[in-house]
């Protein structure tokens, strides 16, 4: 399950409808954490044959942190911890993965990092991820997942708890 889910690199695919990447030489636009205040809260959805849960903190110190849990067949399969933070007058989405025993999947000093590409109304586009506010009670997160030679965009639909 670990290899299937997120021990992967996120890349761009021509099949991706909701995710983007920066072109060579492009830099992230100016943005602040206020751009994504609507992520704050407790969110639940379904993906990968189970229940997904994300809890996003209020902004503090130029960042919003989150925890993610995936549960299938009544058991936790993995966790993520991360944040969206202000860096060089823009935003970056960063995360790390953990097994059920809280042993990290990435190396000790390795972090999955996704730069902001653009803010467009109710959407924030990071490299390989898009956060979309549908309403005050519903959000979508699109992630581009690379499995070998194939990339697939996965939609996570969440309802506020």
Question: Brief description of this entry?
Answer:
The protein is mainly β and 161 residues long. The chain contains 1 helix and 10 strands. The chain is globular, with a radius of gyration of 15 Å.
What attributes characterize this protein structure?
mainly beta; 161 residues; 10-stranded antiparallel beta barrel
List the helices and strands and how they pair.
Elements (H helix, E strand, L loop, with lengths): L1 H4 L35 E7 L2 E7 L6 E10 L2 E13 L2 E9 L13 E9 L2 E4 L2 E7 L2 E10 L2 E11 L1
Antiparallel strand pairs: 1-2, 1-10, 2-3, 3-4, 4-5, 5-6, 6-7, 7-8, 8-9, 9-10
Provide an overview of this structure.
This protein has 161 residues and is mostly beta strands. 2% of the residues lie in helices and 54% in strands. The protein is built from one helix and ten strands; from the N terminus they run H-E-E-E-E-E-E-E-E-E-E. The chain has a ten-stranded antiparallel β-barrel with strand order 1-2-3-4-5-6-7-8-9-10. The two termini are 27 Å apart.
Roughly what percent helix?
under 10%
Largest sheet strand order: 1-2-3-4-5-6-7-8-9-10
Radius of gyration: 15 Å
The arrangement of helices and strands along the chain is HEEEEEEEEEE
- Which regions have little confidence, pLDDT < 50, spanning 5+ residues? 1-15
Mean pLDDT: 89
Count of DSSP strands: 10
Beta content comes to over 45%
| Class from helix and strand fractions | mainly beta
The number of helical runs is: 1
């Amino acid at each position: 399950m670990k290899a299937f889910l997120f021990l992967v690199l996120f890349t761009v695919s021509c099949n991706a409808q909701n995710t983007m990447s920066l072109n060579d030489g492009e830099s992230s636009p100016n943005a602040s954490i206020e751009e994504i205040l609507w992520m704050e809260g407790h969110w639940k959805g379904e993906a990968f044959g189970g229940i997904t849960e994300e809890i996003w903190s209020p902004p503090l110190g130029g960042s919003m942190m989150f925890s993610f849990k995936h549960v299938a067949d009544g058991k936790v399969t993995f966790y993520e911890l991360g944040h969206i933070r202000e860096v060089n007058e823009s935003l970056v989405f960063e995360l790390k993965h953990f097994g059920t025993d809280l042993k990290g999947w990435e190396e000790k000093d390795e972090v999955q990092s996704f730069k902001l590409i653009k803010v467009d109304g109710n959407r924030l586009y990071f490299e390989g991820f898009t956060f979309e506010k549908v309403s005050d009670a519903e959000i979508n997160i699109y992630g581009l997942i690379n499995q070998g030679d194939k990339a697939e965009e996965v939609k996570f639909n969440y309802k506020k708890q």
